[in-house]
Amino acid sequence: KAGVTQTPRYLIKTRGQQVTLSCSPISGHRSVSWYQQTPGQGLQFLFEYFSETQRNKGNFPGRFSGRQFSNSRSEMNVSTLELGDSALYLCASSEWVSQETQYFGPGTRLLVL
Amino acid sequence: GQQLNQSPQSMFIQEGEDVSMNCTSSSIFNTWLWYKQEPGEGPVLLIALYKAGELTSNGRLTAQFGITRKDSFLNISASIPSDVGIYFCAGNPNTGNQFYFGTGTSLTVIP
After folding, report:
1. What is the pLDDT of residues B11-64, one digit of tens each?
2. B43·A42 Cβ contact <8 A
3. Residue A84 backbone zone (phi > 0: left; psi -120 to 50: alpha; other: beta)
4. Cα(A101)–Cα(A20) distance, integer angstroms
């Protein structure tokens, strides 16, 4: 099976812009979780989707949002970008519930100038 | 939220040496996962543990789910240069749909 894919791999934006990142889970996986990784904060949980519904949400402002499509692909959106949003954004998929083993994609490196 | 303490923060070892790192939580976890991350890439799953006391090996890697269910250990035997990377533990308390991650152990292997 192909692994988790994320597009784009790299992105440069300026403050105030918005960005949309995409994640395609492993075939057959229905749960997709998103994480933000920064050197100072480590891996921080953003949210988790299952069957097009957000089941869990981390402690991030409302500028961070996501959605999941019927084919389990997921997108996350960040509006009104701030310099502090520069990070590696990772998505992870699992078969049914996110308590199971999670498999990560390569990430999208976002730089906000 | 849950706190995972991972130690040591970094390790510098000679090739061929064994490595041990551990992760402790403030509460009981039902699942422990160990990942390795290399620069510019996402974490790659090494070992998954689902039962207290479980000991699982993957080649030169061995991980254990602590009896108290509040800790886990990862050992790497006979380290080689390609073991270099950051190792993360992750745990799920089964009270929600979320994994919590340790802060990582940075491993450097000196040839």
Report:
1. 999 999 999 999 999 888 888 999 999 988 899 999 999 888 899 999 999 999
2. no
3. alpha
4. 26
